[in-house]
Design goal:
- By secondary structure, the protein is mainly α.
- The protein is built from nine helices and no strands.
- Helix 7 crosses helix 8.
- The radius of gyration is 19 Å and the shape is elongated.
- The termini are far apart.
């Protein structure tokens, strides 16, 4: 029953977040929407930012776990894009809130994990100096993160998916150049 209640709280919050800005949602709104009392909310979550943290962390973990290896970033990019578009308004409300740091922290973690998995899979047979590999991973992680932040600041526009695929192609080209040095 506790897991059902916790999931109901998350679902209600995401539903509300798709309807109105983060700062316009109260614990009262959430509990009324899912039909529980305030104590039940506070049994599961310290406050609304803790709820946001858990939801974003779960979604990030699902994406990371779905792709244990990545010899191409295209499939991941399409999945990431679909997840973002599914709750576009909710993501933008979090991004534009005082809790934007939660969004950014998990976006950076996701970018780092994905780029590392990509390098570990796609370039496992290529002799790269460890320092070069580390630099490539860091540079590509930051490039991907910067793109995600820029995409978010421009309202998660649908036409950015082509740009994201182009950036992922650039990762491969940079790595190819590094192996020839």
């Amino acid at each position: 029953m506790a897991n059902f209640t916790k999931q109901a709280i998350k679902n209600s919050f995401v539903k509300l977040l798709n309807e109105k800005p983060f700062n316009k949602i109260s614990v009262r709104d959430i509990v009324e929407d899912c039909g529980i009392n305030r104590n039940s909310f506070y049994y599961h979550f310290r406050d609304i930012p803790a709820l946001v943290e858990e939801i974003i962390m779960e979604e990030t973990n699902k994406l990371i776990e779905k792709y244990p290896t990545l010899d191409s970033l295209d499939g991941f990019v399409d999945e990431f894009y679909a997840v973002c578009m599914k709750n576009k308004k909710a993501l933008l409300h979090i991004f534009r809130s005082v809790n934007r740091d939660i969004y950014e922290e998990h976006a950076m973690r996701l970018c780092g994990e994905v780029v590392k998995k990509y390098y570990d899979t796609a370039f496992k047979d290529i002799e790269l100096d460890e320092n070069q590999k580390r630099i490539c991973i860091e540079a590509n992680k930051c490039m991907l993160f910067g793109f995600c932040i820029d995409w978010s600041s421009h309202g998660l526009k649908e036409e950015y998916i082509d740009d994201l695929h182009t950036i992922c192609g650039m990762f491969y080209n940079l790595s190819e150049q590094m192996k020839h040095k």
